[in-house]
Amino acid sequence: xxxxxxxxxxxxxxxxxxxxxxxxxxxxxxxxxxxxxxxxxxxxxxxxxxxxxxxxxxxxxxxxxxxxxxxxxxxxxxxxxxxxxxxxxxxxxxxxxxxxxxxxxxxxxxxxxxxxxxxxxxxxxxxxxxxxxxxxxxxxxxxxxxxxxxxxxxxxxxxxxxxxxxxxxxxxxxxxxxxxxxxxxxxxxxxxxxxxxxxxxxxxxxxxxxxxxxxxxxxxxxxxxxxxxxxxxxxxxxxxxxxxxxxxxxxxxxxxxxxxxxxxxxxxxxxxxxxxxxxxxxxxxxxxxxxxxxxxxxxxxxxxxxxxxxxxxxxxxxxxxxxxxxxxxxxxxxxxxxxxxxxxxxxxxxxxxxxxxxxxxxxxxxxxxxxxxxxxxxxxxxxxxxxxxxxxxxxxxxxxxxxxxxxxxxxxxxx
Length: 415
Hints:
Number of strands: 15
Order of helices and strands: HEEHHEEHEEHEHHHHEEEHEHEHEHEEH
CATH superfamily of the largest domain: Bira Bifunctional Protein, Domain 2
Helix content: 25-40%
CATH class of the largest domain: Alpha Beta
CATH topology of the largest domain: BirA Bifunctional Protein, domain 2
Strand content: 15-25%
């Protein structure tokens, strides 16, 4: 059968839960990444890259087989060789795997940071996407509370650098050491067992597999029971108390405000000591903009040596939504209006000189020469350069009363 040439071809659409970026939001996104790169250098964090795909076992063993991320949200599939692989849903597991497989223990304590795309099959909502992006910072191989403080100060600095710290609160808790956590977990199980008949179905499942997660339950049926559960403080060892005191003392010394949240937990057994979230009410119900904690047992869970570690991550899209557009200067340094094609070589020479000095520049050289200046003037720039010919000689003019325009004029003196 011949094809109907008049048949309309369907316009391709993006996959649901993903997004294209251009203009204002792309500028905000880049602003977050640029700020993160500046701040991580200030704190001596090395850039690290890990693959987007990993063996599924890396995330199943790190996030827990029973968690929603593993059971419902991961993009996992068998490749042609029959191996189950997964698009990374977070950075920590991949960085921990790399730490083991590349022998990075020799560099401990290792301070690393990265950013890039992650993937989760979840219901898209404000600031949440199936392909999303995070900035991430980790310290591997140190059991010192100084590293917890360092990461928290780093995070606070980043939020201030972005101008989004107003209205953001650092909620902080301790999960204690292994002995503290085991004792608290046993007390929670006893408490929830006594109210088993009143718990929601989800919490009954958690009671057998991950009882600490009941404390996070949003089901109104669970809240009175969760709210009356014992806090961890009664079960903290002296060592755990000293660790938390050292972290909070470091925050106080650095001028970082924090609030204790004794209900802030991490359900998986490899978490220890510090747990934290930076919370805002400016993004609706999903109020966490940055979160993390200490995960001293994770690398051992993945088959590596016992290795203390601590880290945090933050969604770039969520941070970008908080950034004030007025903070972002979208202007290019300079724009050239080529008002006479006879001066093209000189205009190209000018661009080369400016770019060699680190000055961004573009040129308007198409269309009617009479209209090029007006077109160039509409492009946001710190300096407007007109290059043409007058009475057979080159005519160059730089407009702008700022420092960039003065620097441009000085560089182009010999043209």
